[in-house]
Amino acid sequence: MRMESRPDKNTRLIAVSNRLPVRVVQTDEGVAVRPGAGGLVTALAPVLRDRGGLWIGWSGTTFDPEHETLLRKASKRIGYGLVPVPLDSQDIDDYYYGFSNEIIWPLFHDLQSRCRFKPRYWYRYLDVNKKFAMCIREQASGGDYIWVHDYHLMHVAFFMRSLGLTQPTGFFLHIPFPPVDIFMKLPWRRRVLEALLQYDLIGFQTMRDKRNFLNSLGTLLPGIRIHRRGAVSDVKYDGRSVRVGAFPISIDYKAFARDSASKEVAEAAWYLHEALPNRQVILGVDRLDYTKGIPERLYSFADALERFPELRMRVSFVQVVVPSRSEVPEYQELKREIERIVGEINGRFTQSGWVPIHYLYRSLDRTQLLAYYRLAEIALITPLKDGMNLVCKEYCACNLEGKGVLILSEFAGAAAQLHRGALMVNPYDVEGVSETIFTAFSMTSQERARRMKILRRAVRRKDIFWWVNTFLKAAFARNLDAFPREMAEEYVPTN
């Protein structure tokens, strides 16, 4: 699907990611387009909307020409173009489930024992990255800025250069970058680093991730020159100069605060409160993944109920788990483990009129999610490792009354920004998390308000638009003003 070039001479922003911000799904009525989920969609959709930009990615299913018509209609509705990259079933198995999620995902989250280093995964990964580069060649004009996202597409710039494309190109890694001793275990480690250095700007979530990357460069690429200075460093290698920076991603703070104050959300929160009266609500919201620390969190909650009996009947733990990669056996086993632990804890502690854990395995619509954020006195966000974690920022933005307490893992990227207002924990420390739950439960309203004020200010000051502006200024001394809002236009394919 080729998008018509726009007569507007302003530079377009073209986002490229593994998945489009929508999903093509089969329903009882036929094929339909549904909104996507995840941190990248939450972060980038407000930036591209009504600026005439494009989003290039996989539709979430094997390609069918019928999908183009559906995606054109969705493009008009959401205010930016959607360009699908056609993938077949073998691409999906070996590039997505294989290399991306059986190698890079666990390795970059310090869980190398879960990796399966199969060579065929690597070769398919290269094939698919080339497909993305070829799609960019079809869509991009000379003045566009190409912004590639995440670990699925680390080789895209390499193939763009081999195809003769010269557009300025940035890359942002949404997951952590591992320490050099862990990254060294990747069989194709040097080729990955050299491919990343084909981008003009490489962005990471935290200074720690940036340091890990630079240390890997210095260890594995002889002759490289690294000039470390502040948030953005210069790297010179093989005749190229590349900038490397830390740019912590965020959310649309104003939108979350505004929507959480709506009558619809307030009423939904009131109904939830009526169902859970006279107790503090502890909330966990996570995608189903072994990096989120859900079993460890549940065991910590059980320990708190055991060691602090005054919590019983006075707290309710609502754990929302959003389905993810449900076709993968490892994730199916994780789901069964979570359900087993929930059943054990509820069976052990339930009393008449009180069930300690309310477990929801489903996606929530925006109103439901914001209602739970409004409802919860305590947010328990304890990933074992996370690039950033936007749930904790969303919770703070929605905490209009300032009554909430954020318990946050030391290993979430957001810890660097939110540690002054949050209660920080080691998610592996069952007793430490247990004691922190009791501390949050016992905290005075004055202390809650003081801490939440710090948290909300931190999220408000560095919101999603700050993130984009910071990245683009580092890329080429421009910000979002270079991509002005306009009337959403209809995108028409050309033959």
What are the salient characteristics of this protein?
globular; nine-stranded mixed beta sheet; alpha/beta; Rossmann fold; 495 residues; 2 domains; 44% helix; disordered N terminus; 17 strands; single chain
Structure notes:
This protein is of the alpha/beta class and 495 residues long. It folds into two domains: 13-249 and 464-482, Glycogen Phosphorylase B (Rossmann fold, 3-Layer(aba) Sandwich), CATH 3.40.50.2000; 253-461, Glycogen Phosphorylase B (Rossmann fold), CATH 3.40.50.2000. The protein is built from 18 helices and 17 strands.
Task: Describe the structure concisely.
With 495 residues, the protein is α/β, with parallel strands linked by helices.
Can you tell me the residue ranges where pLDDT is under 50 for at least 5 consecutive residues?
A: 2-9, 486-495
The count of domains is 2
Top CATH class of the largest domain:
Alpha Beta
Q: How many H/I helical runs?
A: 18
Structural class: alpha/beta
Percent of residues in helical segments? 40-55%
The CATH superfamily of the largest domain appears as: Glycogen Phosphorylase B
Mean pLDDT rating:
91
**Counted beta strands:** 17
- Rounded to an integer in angstroms, the radius of gyration calculated over CA atoms is 23 Å
- Largest beta sheet: strand ordering: 5-4-1-6-7-8-11-10-9
Largest sheet entry: 9 strands, mixed
CATH topology of the largest domain: Rossmann fold
Beginning-to-end CA distance, first to last residue: 8 Å
Strand content: 15-25%
